Amino acid sequence: MSILFEPKTIGKLLVKNRLVRAPTVEKMATDDGGCTPKLVDLYTRLAEGGIGMIITGGAYTQRNGKGLPKKIGLHRDEVIDGYKKLTDRIHQYGVKVVAQLSHCGRQGTVELVGGTPVAPSAVPNLLGVTPIAMDRKQIGEAVDNFVRAAERARQAGFDGVQIHAAHGYLIHEFLSPRTNRRTDDWGGTFEKRMRFLIEIYQGIRRHLGKDYPILLRMNSNDYLEDGLGVEDAARIAERMSSLSIDAIEISAGTWETHFYMSRGDIPQNYWLYTRASGEEKERIREKLTHLARQIRFKEAYLLEYAGKIKKRISCPLILVGGIRTVRVMENILLEGSADFISMCRPLIREPEFPNLIRRGLAARSTCLNCNLCLTDKPVACYQMGFRPPHF
Ligand SMILES: Cc1cc2nc3c(=O)[nH]c(=O)nc-3n(C[C@H](O)[C@H](O)[C@H](O)COP(=O)(O)O)c2cc1C
Questions:
Q1: In order of start, what are the domains of the chain with their CATH numbers?
Q2: How far is the CA of 347 from the centre of ligand 1 (A)?
Q3: Which atom of ligand 1 is nearest to the CA of 164?
Q4: What ligand 1 atom has the least distance to the C-alpha of 343?
Q5: Which has the higher per-residue pLDDT, 243 or 126?
Q6: pLDDT score for 45
Q7: What is the pLDDT of residue 386?
Q8: Ligand 1 residue neighbourhood (C-beta within 6 Å)
Q9: pTM to 2 decimals?
Q10: What is the 3-state secondary structure (H, E, C) of the chain?
């Protein structure tokens, strides 16, 4: 049997195989974050498809943390019953499901967050909007809201939560000296920049106990001169591991360096491009084309960071980023570079990919990395017309 189908634990949670569905924003919830039949269908197909563990798309923890339309929200008690039905369905297939908890911070539009976005410091975002620097009270409330959202996730039957501290969202903004210019208790030194994340983690841990799985998603590299690099990432991971985080998933990129996150083609209908107009639109199009030529897709494009981070932590490492070929997946696990293989786009295209691998019917994903799945529309593979054969 392939190592991919050997069970492994994350804290006390037994996962039936090593394949994880990476957090993937669904854009299928109600406008105020509630569960819908579309979400249940999406997750039923994934669970039927043989995945070991599903991580949901980022679920906002408070109203002004909603960075995209129709995201899952865990910001109010009324959503709990709906998500309980979703987790019950997933559990019928012996699949574990973890809720990703997220706050978009400065990476939100005024329209989506319902006012000026908030952030550790007033550093303008890519759209030119200057966020409000959070005061102590707002920081305390944000921490509480992560803890409350985690409590709702548990009540809704999620097997664990993943704290989203990657991709330039609020927690990552506190971690990075580029976006955290504070001189108080939450900024300045490495420890102080870590404080927001640690307060959230310890708040959830205290509230939900030592056995409830708490995972972390963090960047291995921001690919920004003044952002976090792999050495910073290893230090953050080491610190969180020493505090008994249950697993760490490494990713990369921020709004400014988005195409390092989901390497592949630049989607023609990418939101940044469509929302601009006139000269601005041309400027953005040129920049994106230039970037697309520089940042090419390659298999397992974050693997080089996994080894550096893995040796500094004692919890399982989950690796994401362009992992497409079964042989590569197996080698990553056999060499000990990671403990779980996480995939996003291949499972948008083929939720049944894990079962195809298990039955020996697929040697690699047929995902083309076209990035057409990155749209404002509900998540789906918009390349379905083109289906290359599996082998
Ligand atoms: C449509 C889409 C939605 C995504 N949503 C999220 C999300 O909600 N949270 C997150 O941390 N990453 C998100 N990502 C990033 C993926 O989890 C993953 O890190 C990235 O796509 C690289 O993995 P892949 O090559 O297997 O697609 C998203 C990516 C795509 C393409």
A1: 3-263+298-358 (3.20.20.70), 271-297 (no CATH)
A2: 11
A3: 11
A4: 26
A5: 243
A6: 98
A7: 65
A8: 22-25, 57-58, 100, 164, 166-167, 217, 251, 261-262, 320-322, 343-346, 373-374, 379
A9: 0.96
A10: CCHHHCCEEECCEEECCCEEECCCCCCCCCCCCCCCHHHHHHHHHHHHCCCCEEECCCEECCHHHCCCCCCCECCCHHHHHHHHHHHHHHHCCCCEEEEEEECCCCCCCHHHHCCCCEECCCCCCCCCCCCEECCHHHHHHHHHHHHHHHHHHHHCCCCEEEEEECCCCHHHHHHCCCCCCCCCCCCCCHHHHHHHHHHHHHHHHHHHCCCCCEEEEEEEECCCCCCCCHHHHHHHHHHHHHCCCCEEEEEECCCCCHHHCCCCCCCCCCHHHHHCCHHHHHHHHHHHHHHHHHCCCCCCCCHHHHHHHHCCCCCCEEECCCCCEHHHHHHHHHCCCCCEEEECHHHHHCCCHHHHHHCCCCCECCCCCCCCCCCCCCCCCCCCCCCCCCC
Beta pairing class for 8-10 and 247-252: unpaired
| Conformational region of residue 23, where left means phi above 0, alpha means psi within -120 to 50, and beta covers everything else | beta
Q: Residues 6 or more apart from 352 whose CB is under 8 A from it?
A: 45, 48, 49, 50
Residues designated catalytic = 169
Length of the chain equals 391
Report residue 260 as tokens. 């390092």
Cα of 185 from ligand 1 centre, angstroms: 32
pLDDT in tens, 124-165: 988 788 999 999 999 999 999 999 999 999 999 999 999 999
CA pair distance 229, 252, nearest whole angstrom: 10
